[in-house]
Design brief:
By secondary structure, the protein is α/β, with parallel strands linked by helices. The chain has five helices and nine strands, in the order βαβαββαβββββαα. It has a five-stranded mixed sheet, covered by helices on one side. It has a two-stranded parallel sheet with strand order 1-2.
């Protein structure tokens, strides 16, 4: 599964940690996302950051994960089998169950995409979509668990700031108004 390892880092106001050092020790290629709003001390557009990472990938297929996600035993074989199935079906996007701990959610979530055939959309609560309709399928298995380190009010504040900034030029956006 992991022929290539790309890590996209946005410093924001986060304290310096060893993410970059650890990733480099495992052979990762590091890219840095820079906010469009340079006065913001947090990431300003999750979809843009993810698209930057996706475009940096060199292989045909890419899987995304957050820093606080943990891959499950057997995930590599499940993903490899899903990619084989996607190639047979001619699909570009694969969804798996995503266990979000502390929230009681196990939604079907897009995770694996074919290079150049999918894009992330929405600055916050982003989603990965195939460029063509009906080019996605889902597998009812958990391949990773999201294990955040407790509730962070700063995350809610950050998301609210992004939503507010998004709505100012487009106040009729139903998607963002309902967030």
């Amino acid at each position: 599964m992991a022929e290539e390892f790309v890590v996209c880092i946005s410093r924001g106001s986060l304290k310096a940690d060893k993410t970059e050092e650890i990733a480099l020790a495992h052979g990762a290629r590091i890219i840095h996302y820079k906010n469009k709003k340079t006065d913001w001390n947090h990431i300003d557009d999750f979809a843009s950051a993810r698209n930057m990472a996706l475009e940096a990938c060199k292989n045909e297929w890419a899987i995304w994960a957050d820093a606080d996600d943990v891959m499950q035993p057997g995930a590599e074989a499940l993903v490899d089998d899903a990619i084989d199935e996607a190639n047979k079906r001619g699909t570009d996007l694969i969804a798996f169950r995503y266990d979000v701990q502390n929230a009681g959610l196990i939604p079907l979530r897009e995770m694996v995409s074919r290079k150049g055939k999918c894009k992330w959309k929405n600055r916050v609560h982003e989603s990965l979509v195939a460029n063509e309709e009906n080019k996605m399928f889902g597998i009812d298995k958990v391949v990773r668990i999201h294990k955040p380190h407790g509730y962070k009010k700063t995350s809610a504040d950050r998301n609210f700031a992004i939503l507010k900034d998004t709505l100012e030029p487009a106040p009729n956006s139903l998607y963002y108004t309902q967030q």
